[in-house]
Design a protein that fits this description.
The chain is mainly β. It is built from no helices and 11 strands. The N and C termini lie far apart (40 Å). 29% of the residues are buried.
Length: 119
């Protein structure tokens, strides 16, 4: 039922900033956990940041202090503010949402948006 669409990726110079958006077709408040993952060529998809319904957040050590995940329930949108970008941040970034119940977990993914950090 839930569809996620990422946007905001592009080319940015090292040290620059970028904000990714993930628009949901339905209420993101119905998703207990939302997260940003990224995957670079030849590497496994890794969790970048996650945010829970109570606004608690987690960040990968590699991005902590530089990236900020947030959600706007009124706009049904998840954001990732990326500052002080490094070339190693280059990857396809994916939006993820999970709806967790006592009997199942529904997992939703966006199509991904490319972020390239290069001079």
């Amino acid at each position: 039922q839930v569809q996620l669409v990422e946007s905001g990726g592009g080319l940015v110079q090292p040290g620059g900033s970028l904000r990714l958006s993930c628009a949901a077709s339905g209420s993101i408040f119905s998703l207990n956990v939302m997260a940003w993952y990224r995957q670079a060529p030849g590497k496994e998809r890794e969790l970048v940041a996650s945010i829970f319904s109570g606004t608690r957040t987690n960040y990968a050590d590699s991005v902590k202090g530089r990236f900020t995940i947030s959600r706007d329930n009124a706009k049904n949108t998840l954001y990732l503010q990326m500052n002080s970008l490094k070339p190693e941040d280059t990857a396809v970034y994916y939006c993820n949402g999970k709806r967790i119940s006592s009997w199942s977990t529904d997992d939703y993914w966006g199509q991904g948006t490319q972020v390239t950090v290069s001079s």
